[in-house]
Design a protein that fits this description.
The protein is of the alpha/beta class. It contains 15 helices and ten strands. The protein binds S-adenosylmethionine. The site of S-adenosylmethionine has 20 residues, from loops.
């Protein structure tokens, strides 16, 4: 027997989702419950969300794919984030620092391959004092001619000011999760509000500020994903990078994942299939594009590591930025934030060639 009531409910749900996508695309505004409804959209409906984000991306930031060459220059870290493989207490990891002159040579290689911006990333490594970093930023700006974005964690506001004066244009500091109590559990000795204060300070100083979060953390609820999107919007983030949580061996979160299911019936959990986590990443990317139409949205290494076609599906769901990795091979392997990162063997030339091929396939250009 045909269940008419259920057909009518399904049709009403389809209509509501279509109306919400339309509203988001035309006004860049959604209430929290509306964001949640879109996060709950079924796979078919999600396609409509991705298509709308793709259209907004074309209208706002255009068809160019922006590249930032990633240089992971130190895997020393004073922090103990329970999900991250380079945490201080992981004594099974060999540590490295790339000397400044080698970093400059790598930046020259980026420039020669047509990449005009570098993302300098490290653990929170106090050995790189403020003056050392300022000197490096100046050289990369003046001698090599690249734009510089930093991703070096929390520092005092005065230091952020010095980096800006030295010529750094961007600063990436992900909030990781907008659930402040989950944040505290994941980041021993750190505070969500300190993180936010750093982001406010960076904004005040005029940086192009990068933010973002992870999806699929044990204990993460669907409503906290809605809060991630709302927070990125309220911070008026300029660059957003949202990717999957991927377990890293030797971290408390990978080893003790079960213990972390402290929320009743979490929507996402370590046992979730890759495809489920990827779908939520894409929904959050698409929502971020709709709520912040001009944002530079990254299809990040974690997404590309989770699924072989991660870059492509990210670029189809609103993203316009890729981060080809220029870290030397040995160091790339040791920047072990999570297991099975892609490209550990690929040369930068090969990565750039495959990005150009992908851009051709999508009818887009590489900037
Ligand atoms: N120290 C800098 C900071 O605090 O912003 C940046 C370095 S941190 C290693 C870079 C990013 O790696 C983090 O923002 C986090 O989102 C990501 N990350 C670390 N562990 C991860 C994991 N297991 N799965 C996915 N992403 C992870």
């Amino acid at each position: 027997m045909v269940n008419f009531a259920s057909h009518i409910a399904d049709a009403a749900q389809e209509t509501r989702i279509r109306a919400l996508i339309e509203k988001a695309a035309s006004t860049s505004r959604l209430e929290r419950d509306e964001i949640l409804a879109l996060l709950r959209a079924n796979t078919g409906q999600a396609e409509g969300l991705f298509a709308a984000a793709d259209q907004v991306r074309r209208r706002t930031v255009g068809d160019s794919i922006r590249l930032m060459g990633l240089l992971e220059f130190s895997n020393f870290c004073r922090r103990n984030c329970v999900y991250c493989g380079i945490r201080a207490e992981n004594d099974r990891l060999e540590r490295y620092r790339i000397p400044s002159d080698e970093m400059l040579r790598i930046c020259e290689r980026m420039r020669d391959l047509g990449v005009d911006a570098v993302l300098l990333q490290s653990g929170e490594d106090p050995t790189y004092a403020c003056d050392v970093l300022c000197n490096l930023i100046e050289k990369i700006r003046k001698d090599v001619g690249l734009a510089v974005t930093l991703s070096i964690g929390e520092r005092p506001g005065k230091e952020y000011g010095a980096y800006k004066e030295a010529g750094a244009g961007g600063f990436l500091l992900k909030h990781e999760t907008a659930d402040s109590s989950l944040y505290s559990k994941l980041h021993p000795g750190m505070s969500f509000f300190d993180r936010l204060n750093c982001l406010y300070e960076l904004k005040k100083l005029g940086f192009e500020v990068g933010g973002g979060s992870m999806v699929g953390l044990p204990g993460q609820s669907l409503s906290s994903l809605a809060d991630d999107a709302i927070l990125l919007r309220s911070l008026e983030i300029d660059i957003a990078t949202i990717g999957p949580f991927i377990p890293a061996q030797c971290t408390p979160l990978a080893l003790e994942g079960e213990r972390w299911r402290f929320r009743p019936a979490p929507v996402l959990s370590v046992s979730n299939k890759k495809e489920t986590v990827a779908e939520f990443v894409l929904k959050l990317l698409a929502l971020t594009r709709l709520l912040l139409p001009n944002v530079h949205l990254v299809a990040n290494t974690a997404l590309a590591s989770l699924l072989p076609q991660g870059r492509e599906i990210g670029l189809r769901a609103g993203a316009n930025v890729l981060l080809p990795n220029f870290t030397p091979p040995k160091c790339k392997e040791l920047f072990w934030v999570f297991d099975d990162r892609i490209c550990t063997r690929e040369t930068p030339e090969e990565t750039i060639a495959s990005i150009r091929k992908l851009a051709d396939k999508l009818g887009r250009q590489v900037m």
